[in-house]
């Protein structure tokens, strides 16, 4: 399902080049559960952004079900992400003006899920992560760990084939994690 071939990602900052990934090859089959471990700054988030089709490599290929993400236009990439990928961001990336419930509904709105169905699903997911009594709180009215749980619920909203979770328990206590 996921195949990376000799992937490099070099960030450019003015005149400075910052190599984050150098010649990485990786294959992940359907149904596999993979943990990527490494020290801070070693390129884990960079790698996950590539697999999630949020970024494209400087060199090499990222293939999702045989589709080379670098060959897709931004609309195609958005569609691919919306259908295939759930992403729990290291920094959550919740929409600050929306309630927890609406944040979780958002990816389902883009997939044109009917209103009642997406409301029910968002509520169920938030209940599953222990936030049934925080549905109408905005991110600024939630704790860090609660925001993280909203981000997890949101990533699951469209039953993605690929679930990418970037340090998804970093803000949670052992039991919640
Ligand atoms: N947008 C960017 N522009 C320039 N350099 C960047 C950018 N994003 C990341 N980097 C650099 O690339 C390297 C890899 O960053 P990345 O965020 O992938 O690391 P990480 O393994 O996820 O670290 P952490 O465990 O701290 O989250 C780091 O040295 C970082 O400073
Ligand atoms: Mg990271």
Write the layout of secondary structure elements.
Blueprint lengths: L1 E12 L2 E13 L15 H8 L7 E6 L2 E2 L5 H11 E4 L11 H11 L4 H14 L15 H13 L5 E4 L12
Parallel strand pairs: 5-6
Antiparallel strand pairs: 1-2, 1-3, 3-4
Helix pairs in contact: 3-4, 3-5, 4-5
This protein binds adenosine-5'-triphosphate (ATP) and magnesium ion.
The site of magnesium ion (MG) has 4 residues, from helix 1.
Which CATH-level-2 architecture of the largest domain? 3-Layer(aba) Sandwich
Distance between the termini: 27 Å
> Helicity range of the residues?
25-40%
| Overall tally of domains | 2
Q: What's this entry about, in short?
A:
This protein has helices at 44-51, 74-84, 100-110, 115-128, 144-156; strands at 2-13, 16-28, 59-64, 67-68, 85-88, 162-165. It is α+β, with helices and mostly antiparallel strands.
């Amino acid at each position: 399902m996921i195949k990376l071939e000799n992937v490099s990602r070099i960030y450019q900052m003015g005149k400075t080049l910052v190599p984050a990934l150098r010649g990485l090859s990786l294959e992940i089959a359907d149904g596999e559960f993979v943990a990527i471990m490494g020290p801070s700054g070693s390129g884990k988030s960079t790698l996950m952004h590539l697999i999630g089709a949020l970024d494209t490599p400087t060199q090499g290929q990222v293939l999702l079900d045989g589709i080379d993400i670098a060959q897709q236009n931004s609309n195609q990439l958005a569609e691919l992400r919306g259908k295939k990928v759930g992403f729990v961001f290291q920094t959550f990336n919740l929409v600050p003006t929306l309630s927890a419930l609406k944040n979780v509904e958002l990816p389902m709105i883009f997939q044109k899920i009917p209103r009642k169905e997406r409301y029910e699903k968002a509520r169920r997911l938030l209940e599953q992560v222990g936030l049934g009594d925080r549905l109408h709180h905005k991110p600024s009215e939630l704790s860090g760990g609660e925001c993280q749980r909203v981000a997890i619920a949101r990533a699951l909203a469209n039953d993605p084939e690929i679930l990418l979770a970037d340090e998804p328990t970093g803000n949670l206590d052992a039991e919640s994690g």
